[in-house]
Design goal:
Strands 2-1-5-4-3 form a 5-stranded antiparallel beta sheet, with helices on both faces. It is α+β, with helices and mostly antiparallel strands. The N and C termini lie far apart (about 55 Å).
Amino acid sequence: HDALPICRRVAVGWSRQQAVTVIALSHGAQVSEHPSLGGLPEAMLEAITQARTLCVPRVADGSVSITLAHRSWMKREGLSAVISVPLAEAGTGAVLGALSCERESGRFLPDEVIALEQVAAAVAPLLRMKQEAEWGVVQRWRRDWAQPACCWLHA
């Protein structure tokens, strides 16, 4: 039985004001050591903006998506397949960032896409908590004051 292809690199990006910052790379790579990420942030933003999983080559799901940044990323890096899965906030559905994977050989199968979407749903709340733990006093104050009064008056 043939082994499934593995990912060359996996990355997590965080969205803020219509831009994406890559906050983590697989294989122990430091983001600071990779000033050029080959179009990865742009591809992540493409998935975040559309609030949907984008896979190239695409998995036949009947949907139409814009994948120009993904195709550019794939071509620039010489990859056979790429995928970006939005990281959405539980409850509100607000997209916080994206989880992206790249392969040098093979494509992403439907079961793998589903598994990646499940991973993204599981890690999104943890990444949100980590981000908020790193916030300063002013950022926390802004977040708390943005909450509806009903939520903090009766707490």
